[in-house]
C-alpha cells in the first residue's frame, strides 16, 4: 500500500466510523422515544387540562426526533456508499496516486481481455443463431457461448454488442494519455478580470477576488465545479475538460508572466 492508498483507506475508515456513530445516536434516540411513548400510551390529549401543553410538546418533540433519525440514517448510508467507492478504487484513478498509470494499464489489459473473450463468444452465438433463430439458452451454453451472452439472448431475443466494452477501452486509453501528458508539463495558470485560474496536482482551481454573480455560480455548478470553503475557491478534478470549462466560464487568458 503506497502513501496515497493509505490516505484513502484512512479516509474511508473515518467515513465508516462516522456512519457507525450516527447509527448509534439513532438507536439511542429511538430508545428515549420509546420510553416517552410508553408513558404516553393510551393517554389522549386532555384539552383544557394542565397536562395539555406538556402532551403537545412531547408530540412535537417525538416528531422532530423522528425527522432527525431519518436524516441521520440517510447520512450514514451516504457515508457508507462513499466509503465503499473509495475502497473499491472508484471509476476514475486519481492523479494523486503515484501508481495511477500502472493501475489504469492493468485495468485496460483486463478490459481488452474481457472484450476479446466477448467477441469470441458473440461469434459462437451468431453461428448458433444463424442455424436456429429460436435457440434456447441451454443450446447456446452447450455451444460454448458465455453465460452473459446466452442470458441476454434469452431475455431480449437479440445478441449484445461490444459497444460498452470498447467505450471503456477508449476511456481508459484517454485517461492514461491524459495522466502521462500531465506528467510532462507544468501546471497552467490563467487570469481574468477579478480572479485567477490555476492547476494543482489534481485540481483546477478558480479564485475570485469577490463573490461572482449568481449566473457565474450557476455556470460553475453546471460544469461540475464545487465550492471548497477551505480554499476559498471553486474546484474540480483536473482534466482537460475542467480546464476548458474554467477558462470558458471566466474568459480567462493564459498567464505568461
- The fraction of residues in strands falls at 5-15%
3D shape: flat
Instruction: State the share of residues found in helices, binned by percent.
Output: 55-70%
- Summed up, the domain count is 3
What is the arithmetic mean of pLDDT?
Answer: 87
Please give the order of strands in the largest beta sheet.
Answer: 4-5-3-2-1-6
Walk me through this protein's architecture:
This protein has helices at residues 3-40, 52-87, 100-131, 137-142, 147-156, 163-183, 214-222, 240-250, and strands spanning 189-192, 195-199, 203-208, 226-228, 233-237, 253-254. The protein is α+β, with helices and mostly antiparallel strands and 257 residues long. It folds into three domains: 3-87; 100-167, no CATH class; 189-254. β2 (195-199) and β3 (203-208) form a beta hairpin. α1 (3-40) packs antiparallel against α2 and α3 (100-131) packs antiparallel against α6 (163-183). The longest helix has 38 residues, at 3-40. The chain is flat and about 85 Å long.
Key descriptive features of the protein:
6 strands, flat, 3 domains, alpha+beta, 257 residues, six-stranded antiparallel beta sheet
Topology:
Elements: H1 3-40, H2 52-87, H3 100-131, H4 137-142, H5 147-156, H6 163-183, E1 189-192, E2 195-199, E3 203-208, H7 214-222, E4 226-228, E5 233-237, H8 240-250, E6 253-254
Antiparallel strand pairs: 1-2, 1-6, 2-3, 3-5, 4-5
Helix pairs in contact: 1-2, 3-6
Amino acid at each position: 500500500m503506497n502513501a496515497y492508498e493509505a490516505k484513502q483507506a484512512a479516509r474511508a475508515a473515518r467515513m465508516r466510523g462516522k456512519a457507525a456513530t450516527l447509527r448509534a445516536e439513532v438507536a439511542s434516540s429511538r430508545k428515549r422515544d420509546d420510553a416517552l411513548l410508553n408513558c404516553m400510551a393510551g393517554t389522549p390529549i386532555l384539552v383544557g387540562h394542565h397536562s395539555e401543553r406538556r402532551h403537545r410538546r412531547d408530540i412535537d418533540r417525538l416528531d422532530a426526533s423522528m425527522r432527525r433519525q431519518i436524516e441521520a440514517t440517510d447520512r450514514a448510508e451516504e457515508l457508507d456508499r462513499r466509503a465503499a467507492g473509495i475502497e473499491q478504487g472508484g471509476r476514475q484513478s486519481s492523479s494523486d496516486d503515484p501508481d495511477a498509470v500502472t493501475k489504469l494499464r492493468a485495468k485496460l489489459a483486463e478490459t481488452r481481455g474481457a472484450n476479446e473473450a466477448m467477441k469470441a463468444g458473440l461469434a459462437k452465438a451468431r453461428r448458433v443463431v444463424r442455424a436456429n433463430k429460436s435457440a434456447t439458452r441451454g443450446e447456446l451454453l452447450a455451444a460454448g457461448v458465455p453465460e452473459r451472452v446466452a442470458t441476454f439472448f434469452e431475455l431480449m431475443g437479440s445478441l449484445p454488442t461490444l459497444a460498452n466494452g470498447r467505450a471503456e477501452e477508449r476511456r481508459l486509453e484517454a485517461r492514461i494519455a491524459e495522466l502521462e501528458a500531465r506528467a510532462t508539463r507544468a501546471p497552467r495558470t490563467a487570469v481574468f478580470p477579478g480572479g485567477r485560474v490555476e492547476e494543482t496536482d489534481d485540481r483546477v482551481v478558480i479564485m475570485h477576488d469577490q463573490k461572482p454573480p449568481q449566473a457565474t455560480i450557476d455556470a460553475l455548478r453546471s460544469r461540475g465545479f464545487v465550492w471548497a470553503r477551505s480554499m476559498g475557491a471553486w474546484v474540480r478534478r483536473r482534466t482537460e475538460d475542467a480546464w476548458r470549462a474554467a477558462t470558458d466560464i471566466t474568459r480567462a487568458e493564459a498567464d505568461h508572466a
